């Protein structure tokens, strides 16, 4: 039933969706939010020049051409998600003070929630 995937093979999130999405969708369509449907479509179309278009680059000296397919820009895709995370991290780093700090989680008892919410 399941195929063994070699560790060296490039099995991406996009490929997992391409292999399994339509069976999953047929079984669970009523339970899937529109945002999920939209992001899965973006992931599966990512890098497909026929679906999302492309930029064509032509060397003015030799005439060599190169197609650069547009990406899906979904935060869940392998490359787009990484790029979006990196951009978010860069922005967050600029907003933080350049000092040592600690992240502390404070969980007040239920009786005090109203005070902290105010």
Description:
With 118 residues, the chain is mainly alpha-helical. The chain is built from 5 helices and 2 strands, in the order H-H-H-E-E-H-H. The chain has one domain. Strands 1-2 form a two-stranded antiparallel sheet. It is flat, with a radius of gyration of 22 Å. The mean pLDDT is 88.
Topology:
Elements: H1 13-28, H2 34-45, H3 49-52, E1 54-58, E2 65-69, H4 78-95, H5 113-117
Antiparallel strand pairs: 1-2
Gist?
The protein has about 120 residues and is mainly α.
Portion in helices: 40-55%
Topology as a string of helices (H) and strands (E):
HHHEEHH
Distance from N terminus to C terminus (CA atoms, Å) equals 55 Å
Radius of gyration from the alpha-carbon trace, in angstroms: 22 Å
Structural class: mainly alpha
Shape: flat
Sheet bearing the most strands, described? Answer: 2 strands, antiparallel
Strand order of the largest sheet: 1-2
Strand content: 5-15%
Mean pLDDT: 88
Overview features:
118 residues, mainly alpha, two-stranded antiparallel sheet, 2 strands, flat
């Amino acid at each position: 039933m399941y195929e063994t995937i070699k560790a060296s093979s490039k099995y991406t999130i996009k490929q997992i969706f391409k292999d399994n999405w339509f069976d999953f969708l047929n079984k669970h369509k009523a339970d899937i939010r529109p945002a999920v449907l939209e992001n899965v479509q973006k992931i599966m179309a990512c890098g497909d020049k026929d679906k999302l278009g492309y930029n064509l680059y032509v060397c003015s000296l030799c005439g060599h051409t190169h197609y650069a397919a547009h990406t899906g820009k979904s935060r869940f895709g392998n490359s787009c998600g990484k790029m979006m995370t990196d951009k978010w991290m860069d922005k967050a780093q600029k907003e933080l003070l350049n000092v040592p700090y600690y992240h502390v989680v404070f969980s007040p008892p239920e009786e005090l929630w109203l005070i902290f919410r105010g």
